[in-house]
Amino acid sequence: MIAAGLDPISQFDLKKMAELKVGNFDLSFTNSALMMVVTVGCILAWMLLSTGKRSLVPGRAQSIAEVSYEFVADMIRSTAGKDGLRFFPFVFTLFVFILFANLLGMIPFFFTITSHIIVTVVLAMMVMILVVVYGVYKNGFGFLKLFWPSGVPFVLKALLVAPIEVISFLSRPVSHSIRLWANMFAGHILLKLFAGFAVMMFAAGGLTMAGSFVPYVLVLALTPLEFLVAFVQAYVFALLTCVYLSDALHPGH
Amino acid sequence: MLSAMKANMMMAAAAKPAGGGDVEKVFAPFDVSYFPSQIFWLLLSFFVLYFLLSRIFLPRISETLEERSSRIADDLDAASRMQREAEEAEKAYERALADAKAKAHNVAETTRQSVDAEIATELEAADAEAARQAEAAEARIRQVRAKALANIESVAAEAAQATVEALTGKSVTAATVKSALN
User: Which of these, A236, B26, B35, B142, has the minimum number of CB atoms within 10 Å of its CB?
Assistant: First the structure.
């Protein structure tokens, strides 16, 4: 019944814009890749705009950039400590990339790159690999203390705490990626569905037409909520990254 | 409630294309055939962004922030230094004022003393002069009185001579009269 344009899933379709094959891999440039480039371009434009003058008394763009800088730096300092600041560029890049991707996805007809599970999985795996590689590089076998917390009776530790710690560690990239993906995906589905209902009911005429204001108001209410979700999810992703990195820095809890 | 609603929608959405019947359409967010492309472009764009931010833009921002905080610290330092200098200047001013006051007092004192001395010498001189003049005047007075007394003797002798002559008709010499008077 639903017309093709109103199908809430079709907004996630990938479209090839330029073919690119390397060996057996299809690396074609898609609408998703285009949005990644647009996201990076927007961030770089913002950065150019805000660090162009570098005045002692900041202008509007410059102070936004400085506030973001301090925001991420404070986030790292409060969760991973001062030595966590060595990961500042990585966390900042993650934060602004996800934030801009989410916000750009809120523009009608723009593709939302974080609504594809593989994108969030890659981002989460980058964090996971960084945590493991840096944790082992810095602490050696001491990194395993992460699963062997001090101050717990040995039997309890061996039978209960260590398995739980291992499971929780391994499930981190799963929850980390699915949280972001599900929020963005579900939010866009909701918006599209209610907007579709509003249009269909309005087109049906009669009493349904009068009732079309209900989904319309819902879309109106959901839109600011989705903007909030776009920010909160970027923040949560960056914050959890800091928490995980703090484990790599101080595995002894 | 919202999350439950979301889950329902997701299920409905996921079920729809499969139920569509015609071409077996893959659920787009899980479409494996696009995974290599997605991974490739994501890593490329992410690391380009990471490289540019970490090498160029973030150092610029941190430089600006550090410059500002050091500038503020410098300004505060300069302000406290200036305050200290101002306090010192005030102290020096007060000291100079006290010195000047003392010096002015000294000058006034010495001037007063020298003026007093001058007045004293002048007074002395004037006193001496006055005494000298008084002496001279007294001497003259004494002289004049002596002369006058001498004159009185001779006048009295003459008067006595004249009286004797008139009474007796005899003339007497001046010397006789004089001896008679004494």
Answer: B142
